[in-house]
Every structure is written in C-alpha cells, then in structure tokens.
Amino acid sequence: MEATVGQRKASGLMKVSRHSSVVRRLTVGVALLSLALLGTSMASMSMGPVNIPVANVASAMLDNVGIDAWQHTETEALVLEQLRLPRIVVGILVGMALGAAGATMQGLFRNPLADPGIIGVSMGGATGAVLAIALGLSGLFYMALPTFAFLGSLAAAFVVYSIGGVGGRFSMATIILAGVAVSSFLGAVISTIIVVEADEDSLRGILFWLAGSLDSRSWEHVGISAPLILGGAAVILVFSRDLNLLMLGDDDARSMGVRVGLLRPMLIGVASMITGVAVAVSGVVAFVGLVAPHMLRIIFGPDHRVLIPVSALGGAFFLVAADTIARTVIQPAEFQVGIVTAFVGAPFFIFLLIKNKRKSGVF
Amino acid sequence: MIGRRGIALILGTLIAMAALLSACGDDATSTATQQPAASPVATATATTAPTATATATATAAPTATPTPQPSPFAGVPGIVNPNNRGWPRQVEVLNGIFEIRAKPARIVTVSIGHDEITYALVPATRVVGVGGVSKDTTYSNVAEIAKAAPSISTEPETILSVKPDIMVTSAFFNKEKVAALERAGLQVLVTDLSGDPAGRRNTILLMGYIYGEEERAIAFAKEIDDRHKALQSVVGNKPSKPKVLAVASYGDQIYTAGLKSTEGGIIEAAGGINAAAEAKLEFNPVISAESIISMSPEVIIITQPNDSGDPFKDQLMKNAALAQVPAIKNNKIYVVDPKLYTTLSHWNLRGAEDLAKILWPQDFANKQFGGFSSP
Fold it and tell me: For residue A196, what are the CA distances in angstroms to A187, A361, B108?
C-alpha cells in the first residue's frame, strides 16, 4: 500500500523546502564538497609510487594554465598529466555518475535501498566486460572493454525497460522485478563464463574487473565518459524539482503539471545511461551509488534540488578518496577501489545510520 | 719321523685354519649386508644434513668398511624410506602419509605443472587423462603429447571415469574434491611444486618415486641440474646485472611478479635482478603504470601471448609518461612465451635460458636451447 503524503513527509524522505533554505543548503553543500574534492584531488596527485611534493604538483598545474613556476621535473609533469590526473578525473566522473544516479533511483523508486544497479545496468555492464575478457577481445583494441561494458549496460537497461513498458504503461514494481530477474540471469551468465573459462589469467582479469578499478585510466576514458555523464547529470538536475513532486505521488505530481508518464521513464533512462558509462570505464564499483546519497540526505535533507548536486560531488569525493587509499596503501602494488569503498564506506555508513537513528528516532 | 698321529695333527691344524679363514670371510660379507639395516638412521640424519652424515660415516670407518653410497632419494622431502625401492612404499605429502601398494599404471594429475613433470618421467600411455590447460599450446609445454590423452575436468566423476590408479595434484586443487575422490577409493597425493633448483630436483625425484620410475627420475634430475649449472656458469658471476620487470595485462590491470613468483625465480636464474622483488612486492600483485616508473627497470618482459602481449607492449611504448623508463627508452621490452615463464615445472629452466639469451646476447647469440629428454 502506498504511503500517504503525510507519512512520507514524516519519514523525512520527502520534504518540500523553502527556496531560500534550498539555496543556502545548496551553496553550503556544493562549496564544502567542492573544497573537499579539490583537497582530496590535490593530495591524490601528490601521492603515489613516484614521489611528487605538493608544491611540484601546484607548479605543474600552474604550468598547464600558462603560469611558469618550473619547480617540477618533466617526469613529474608527465606522471601527473598522463597517469594520475586522468585517473582522478575518471574517478570524479564515475563518482558523480553513481552519486547522481543513486539519488535519482532512490527518489524514483521511493526506496532508500535503491541503487544505480537496481535495474540491471551494472550487471549488464559486467557481463559485457566479462564476455570481452573471456573471448579474448579485451586485448584486441584499447577501448574494447569499456565498449563491451557500455553495450552490455545498454542492452540490460533496454530489456528491463521493455518489460516494464509491456501493455503500454510503465509500472515501477514491474521494472524493479524485471531488474532483479535480469540481474540474476546475467549473474548466472557471468558465473557460467567463470566456471567454463579455462584460462586462469582471463579469470584473474574478470575477478579483478568485477571488483571495480580506476587503474590505467587515460584521457580517452575521460573523453568517452565526460560528455555522457556530465550531460546526463545536468538533465537529472534540471528535472530535480519534478523529481520532488513525483515523490508526492503520481496523482499529486500530475495535478502540479508534471508529465509523469514521460518524466519517469526518461529519468530512469538517463540514470541508467550514466551508470552504464561509469561501469564501462571503472568496472563495478559497489556502494558509492547507495551510500553517498544516503549520507548526504542525512546531512542536507531530501530535496532533490540539493541532493542531486551534492550526491554527485559527494560520490566524486568518496571515490577519489577511496582510490587514493587503494593505490597508495600498499604501493607500488594496489587494491581494487571497489574493495576500499566497501571497507571504508560500510562502517562509516553504519555509524551515520546509528547516530541518526539515536538523534531523530526515524529514518 | 712323522707318524700317523703327526699327519693327523697337521691335517687337523690345516682344517682348523681353513675353517678360521672361512669364518673371517663370512664376517666381512655379513657387515656389508647389514648396511641397509642401519641406513634408516643414516637417512633420518641425512634429511637435515646430508653432507654431514656422509662425512660422519666416512670418518667412522675409513678403510675397514666400504663407504656406503647414499641413496639418491635420501633427503628428498616426502620419501619415507629412501632405500625402499620395492612395493608397497610410503610417501608423506601435503595431505598425509600414503602407502602406494603397487606401481601405478594409470595416472592423472589435473595440474599443468604436474602434467609436465609426469610426461617427462613416464611413458605417455600411463597418463590416462589431462585437464584442458595441459592441451592448450599457449600455456602448456606438453600440449602436443597431451593431445592423445582423454580430456578430464576437475570434477571427481570425470576423473574417476578414466579409472586412474593414482592422482598426484597440486595444493590448488579443491580440498573438498580431494576428499570426495578419496571417499571413492582413489589415492590422491597433494604435492608442492617449486621453481627453485633444489625444490625442482626434489619434486622430480619424489614424483619419480611415486610412479616407480626411480632411474628415469635420477637421470632426468641430473639432466636438469646440469643444464642449470651450465647456465649459471655463464650468468652467475656477471659483475653487473640488469634490473628486469615481468608484467602482464589482463582486463586493464597490470600484474607484476615479485618475490616468491615463478617469473621472479626465472629472472634471477637468468642473471637478472627482479625489479618487483627489489620493490618488496610478493607473488603477482596488481601495479599501476606509475609503479613501472618508480621501479625503473632496464628490461621489461611481457609474459603473455602475442595477441594480447603485443598491444600491451604498444600501449607501454606509446605512454609518454613512461618514455624515460630505461627499458622503454632503450626499446628493451619483450613479449615472451608465457608457457616458459609461468609454469612451475622444469620448463621454467627453459624460460631462464630463453631470458638469458635476451639479457646476455653476446654470450648466447648462437646458442639454441632445445627441449628436454623423454622417457
């Protein structure tokens, strides 16, 4: 049975805020998270197997904008420009995509447990990548893996979407159930490939890819992901007010001028698309899309006009910080970033949940 | 005059002397026969200090007793009684002590390293089933000979279907499946494989002992030792050794080979310094491209097939950030045959020979390293 508007308001998941309050929270949230992201990115750029002092990082960055500081060496500049910076930028983009898509899915499905993978997009991407590795296609050309992963994500989203639209009317419950079914089916496909795949080295590639990683990301990865992720996130942000209204219920939203039949599948499609792009360039990074919006909803409230941008920035900050830990803690070897997001994110998330429950009594 | 009594006395004395001499001769023979009886004690000592035992024996009876030849199997971990060449015989392996009742005629291993050693020790007809990897020419050094054997998987039923007498496999084989096979009555011996020269020799001797192919195992271990020594005589005393990094790329991840890795052992055997081991890395961890800069190798070997190794090489060569890495600057980056560099059998010696040709072209320019002898 659908909750009443009053119940949803009481739960804190839906609260329509005054404009001035929104602007204030948006400004504070964006400023704080941007500063945190900038600081983390600078720290990340100075840390790694090749020791580069922060001053030299700043010097190299200034040099890029035409200010000749020349405190850095040529090797340091190359390491920063060709290895660390693209990795950090991909981390920011993937984090933004997962954060924004997570907040959107949680709003659309009115379910705080929803994450970007709920409609099978992550598993679709994983299946595409695993197929590319198992068939030996990943070594044939540079972008084979992200291309297959993206196609897998799109195919999964298309199937789920088609099932959800059977009969000419979209049903959110059908989409969730179809997402669960498609994810399970694709999980079985991946398991089958792993079982029958005799090549141990390919298996290693598959297992590491499934844990998610930002290793070896290049400007090409930035180039293919940035327009789609930034464009998709911008579209979601434009419709964030309508997303708030959707949470009042379809009838209430319609009465306020929202074209529910068009908006909901469009937002699902955009969120799926940016998740698919993220999976294509980083593998399956768990937890970011679930936790970042959750944590930030606790801090900044449920209004999507604030929640979408801060979730995007929060997801970016979280992922860049996690990746910095992943690549420096056992350097020159490194972990998969998905392992770190789970190890660091889960305890912190539980801490926030307990703290919030003690404070408010509900969540 | 010597009377009848005198003749009888002389004859009696002669007979007595003959009997005494005869008795002395018997004594000498019986001492030699007792050596094996005393040998288990000697063996137990030899396990920890084989040289010391040999010296002690020689000192105790330098001339009076012939110096006993130590069993070639003395000191080989896992062989319970090195002097027992008959059946049944006992071995102590990773999963316990086993009594092998008779010479096994039908053998399976389901481990590529074990398959490679097994084919070097026994006629191919005794191997009654191999896993798919052993038939894969990319990763197996016995792919050609293994073609004739039926294919089996790691599933207990498929293994039992080829009716093996014994299974010798690695510690990586699923323990629950080992237990299931044992419940079905198959003797499954889990043994270690080692890449270092001493460990490799012990593995060959232990497996030869298990299969009842002692003479072949002794000869083959000597062949491997001789080739190793020949290689070391050239590369062992080089005053300056190049820093070598082994890498492979799978699923966009770069793997290297540090301490305790097969590739690391091969690099050192070929007269190189393992750059990843120097960076304190162990086994085969994931590294970033940036780590290649920090390790600064003079030679990079890519241990994967050409279809994926060549694009990875191009990727490294084209990466501007890596341009100052000595190996890349001097174009010393090689895609090598993975089956020689990733196996834990004697074929990794062949890998070391292959790498030695790369590292020391002036010494091995005209040298053609071949395969190994067959049983």
Answer: 14, 50, 20
Name chain B contacts of A79, Cβ cutoff 8 Å: 290, 293, 321
Q: Is A250 on the interface with B (CB under 8 A)?
A: no
How many angstroms away from the CA of B58 is the closest CA of chain A? 51
Question: What is the ipTM, given to two decimal places?
Answer: 0.76
> Which among A202, A216, A337 is the top mutation candidate for probing chain B, defined by the most B β-carbons within 10 Å of its own β-carbon?
A216
Task: Point out the domain boundary residue: B174, B202, B232.
Answer: B232
Domain range for B218: 89-232
Query: Contact at 8 Å (CB) between B179 and B158?
Result: no
Nearest-5° Cα angle at B167, B166 to B170: 155
Beta bridge partners of B99: B90
Is residue A333 within 8 angstroms of chain B, CB to CB?
yes
Q: Has residue B36 been placed in a domain? A: no
Asked if the structure places residue B120 within a domain, the reply is yes
A84 to chain B, any CB pair closer than 8 A? The answer is: yes
pTM value is 0.78
Q: What is the CATH number of the domain that holds B222?
A: 3.40.50.1980
B365 vs A10: CA distance, rounded Å: 82
Tens of pLDDT, residue by residue over B299-325, are 999 999 998 899 999 999 999 999 999
Over residues A90-134, the pLDDT tens digits come to 999 999 999 999 999 999 888 777 888 788 888 998 999 888 888
| CB of B195 closer than 8 Å to CB of B348 | yes
Collapse the DSSP code of B78 into the 3-class scheme (helix H, G, I; strand E, B; otherwise coil) and give the result.
coil
Q: Using an 8 Å Cβ cutoff, are B348 and B273 in contact?
A: no
